[in-house]
């Protein structure tokens, strides 16, 4: 451990220079969604290549039809091997007038007695990816080498739907495959409690369009005998949940597992306050499955949600139309081993079952991804958790995520890799918003955390 | 009866001149909704005043904040008294390129072996109102006087929501009140079968907006515990009908009567073909209350229809949003003695009953009108029906109407008058559309019909 302590000392002593490097990166407006910033994105990739090369990485810019990837290899050629992922592109900065200073001129600011770095991309994801780079630097500067084999992949299109990512992973699968992936694009449970996200929900999404008459009808002339698609659609949607909030599709819960006791205990220990969580958005009562705690509802239970509905006249005033069609967008968040395609079929079967005479349905599929559930019995998880626990005031916890983080699914599906999602962001980082910030503590503690996690995974 | 026969002969012999007068009226572009035609509307009113004055009516143009009314009085000062209503304004004629000739240059055309008058307003409503004027002329030319007291009201804003009508009726209630109103703005059952429309449905309309969270939420972060307004709304809408198609609101059917046996027999005799009726709009099976014939569903049964629904993301593609609100426009067509306000309250009570925790509802009322059910035991109805039957090949029938004709309601509410809706339009007249036409047979037979109805009502 003396070795780790000295590496941590190096990391600490590097803080001012590390901030200068981060600020240089933050000054580059690498907005991937706006073509006007394309050359800035390329320059940012080049900057990262130079930075990694200067540390001894075999680093290169890898052009794609979109923004370039940065790939770098370092460390011993055998033994444990990690793939580290981050993204160097950022969200647009508008509305600019809400920023306290130029979003691409990073500033250190004092907030509530703590220092924060304010800039676009500070937390999402430049500050985070630099925690890993600075940890690598500390290892190399202290001991002359990385403690384990490292492949780095920095993407430049995460904020614009990653069109080049899956093709790139497929074309370079052999080069990029490691023992496990480290994804640094998430947050801590709170400022005291580090976390590894080990469960992400999948999703199957479907649009259904119900059609009846071949034109809109007047409810005076046809109201009564004419089928009404809004009524048919409402009936279908209302059939999808029972009065306990459970989804009624046949086979829907196939593959849903109980949360293992130990994991449930960890979650319990987080002291999640459902009332406070819901209170922030004007709600108070968990509306999902009865008898299931709210945190489990988000992390470990599937849903069937209605994301959009449209039919008939929806402008001001009133029009007594019987619409020719009505449509809804439906998505199911999936957990554990639920099969998205089987659930899509069950949904379609339900619609057909409830479809009355004279009505037709069109289905438009919108994606189907399984949940990502990491194999936490892989010793790397417990090793990383212990390493994080050594750094921060409170025990590190395995958490879940209610949404999908596509990259974790891609690593699993294309490279066959489980991912450890370890990040140091905070809930109030305002990513994608004006005055985005990253706690200085997240940056320095994140760097120190990676020093420890690398050591732990090297064993 | 010899007197009627001679009046009918006069009417017949006047046909060519009557057509010239109608054509003069049709040449005036009295489009009420377009301010550019305001002076044409005024000129049309003046033309009608002159026409009626020349027949001996005490006729005058009565200006309003909108288009002028035409009011005329004629006939004996005592005995039966009818108020005749028509409107001289017309719909805009666009799209002009679809007309076979100038919409304001009326033409006689041969269609399927019968002559029709093609022009904007031929059927709606200038041709129709002139049938009554020509019948008056025939009476006056033949016997020197009208057979009963007649008040005429011609409106110039029917095609633009009649903003001046109710105030005008209220201000001139004493002058306009008669024993019964005759409204000539509807059609025959078919070319052989005249009809009197005696039942019009009323309506109560309501918009409901369900709100939950104070912002749109991401279904990854909140899907599960967060209330979903689309789901709440669907549940409410789906609760409004049972599996027999009946509306489940408390007290909804209070005031709904059985169709009297004799009336039901008349309707039966019409040979209404539900399959053909629905087939024209791509449907085949009456979707309303089970066990109720389609014609009864339209004319004599109430509905609860959904006219519009909107919530969440409805554009292309998919967005996993849990919307902050969802809204629906709901309208109930009402029959007999149903109380629109009681039904509105029942609907609101249902919504409140089904509203879960954390959800709020806003109601926007959109009008509430009782059904118009004429007192057909008033002997005038049977007299008019006999008169029509004498003129046409088939028995005249009492029909219903699934929609509302506001003027009938206004006459009832402001003047206390039942209305006889007698008109000679045909289903294929293309009112409001290019190449609007009025059958020459409708014009001549309509004129002859009014000769007979006036005689019948004079008794």
TrEMBL record, chains A, B:
Keywords for the protein's UniProt record, in alphabetical order: Hydrolase, Metal-binding, Protease
One Pfam family it belongs to: Peptidase_M20
Molecular functions per Gene Ontology: metal ion binding; peptidase activity
Every Peptidase M20 dimerisation domain range: 207-358
Listed GO biological process terms: proteolysis
UniProt keyword ATP-binding present: no
Highest taxon of the lineage: Bacteria
Keyword Hydrolase applies: yes
Gene3D superfamilies: 3.30.70.360, Zn peptidases
PANTHER family: BETA-ALA-HIS DIPEPTIDASE, SUCCINYL-DIAMINOPIMELATE DESUCCINYLASE
NCBIfam families: PRK09104.1
Protein name: M20/M25/M40 family metallo-hydrolase
Source organism: Pontivivens nitratireducens
């Amino acid at each position: 451990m003396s070795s780790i302590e000295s590496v941590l000392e190096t990391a600490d002593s590097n803080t001012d220079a590390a901030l200068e490097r981060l600020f240089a990166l933050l000054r580059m407006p690498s907005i991937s969604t706006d073509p006007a910033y394309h050359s800035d994105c390329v320059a940012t990739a080049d900057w990262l290549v130079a930075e990694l090369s200067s540390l001894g990485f075999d680093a290169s810019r890898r052009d794609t039809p979109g923004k370039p990837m940065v790939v770098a290899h370092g460390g011993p050629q055998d033994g444990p091997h990690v793939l580290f992922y981050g993204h160097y592109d950022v969200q647009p900065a508008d509305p600019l007038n809400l920023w306290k200073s130029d979003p691409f001129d990073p500033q250190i600011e004092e907030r509530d007695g703590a220092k924060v770095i304010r800039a676009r991309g500070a937390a999402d994801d430049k500050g985070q990816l630099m925690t890993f780079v600075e940890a690598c630097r500390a290892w190399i500067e202290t001991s002359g080498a990385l403690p384990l084999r490292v492949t780095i992949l920095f993407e430049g299109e995460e904020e614009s739907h990653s069109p080049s990512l899956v093709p790139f992973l497929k074309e370079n699968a052999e080069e990029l495959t490691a023992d496990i992936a480290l994804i640094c694009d998430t947050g801590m449970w709170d400022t005291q409690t580090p976390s590894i996200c080990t469960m992400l929900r999948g999703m199957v999404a479907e649009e259904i369009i119900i059609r009846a008459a071949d034109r809109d009808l007047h409810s005076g002339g046809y109201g009564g005998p004419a089928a009404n698609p809004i009524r048919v659609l409402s009936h279908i949607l209302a059939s999808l949940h029972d009065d306990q909030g459970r989804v009624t599709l046949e086979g829907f819960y196939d593959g849903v597992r109980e949360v293992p006791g130990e994991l449930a205990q960890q979650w319990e220990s987080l002291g999640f306050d459902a009332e406070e969580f819901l209170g922030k958005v004007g709600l108070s009562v968990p509306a999902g499955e009865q008898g299931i705690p709210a945190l489990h509802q988000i992390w470990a239970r599937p849903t069937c949600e209605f994301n959009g509905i449209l039919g008939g006249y929806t402008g001001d005033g009133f029009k007594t139309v019987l619409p020719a069609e009505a449509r809804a967008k439906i998505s199911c968040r999936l957990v554990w081993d639920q099969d998205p395609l089987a659930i899509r079929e069950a949904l379609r079967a339900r619609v057909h079952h409830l479809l009355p005479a004279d009505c037709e349905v069109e289905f438009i599929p919108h994606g189907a991804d399984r949940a990502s559930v990491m194999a936490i019995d892989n010793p790397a998880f417990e090793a990383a958790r212990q390493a994080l626990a050594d750094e921060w005031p409170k025990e590190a916890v395995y958490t879940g995520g209610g949404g999908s983080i596509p990259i974790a699914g891609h690593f699993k599906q294309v490279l066959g890799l489980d991912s450890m999602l370890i990040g140091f962001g905070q809930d109030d980082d305002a990513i994608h918003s004006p005055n985005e910030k990253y706690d200085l503590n997240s940056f320095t503690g994140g760097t120190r955390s990676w020093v420890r996690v690398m050591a732990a995974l090297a064993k």
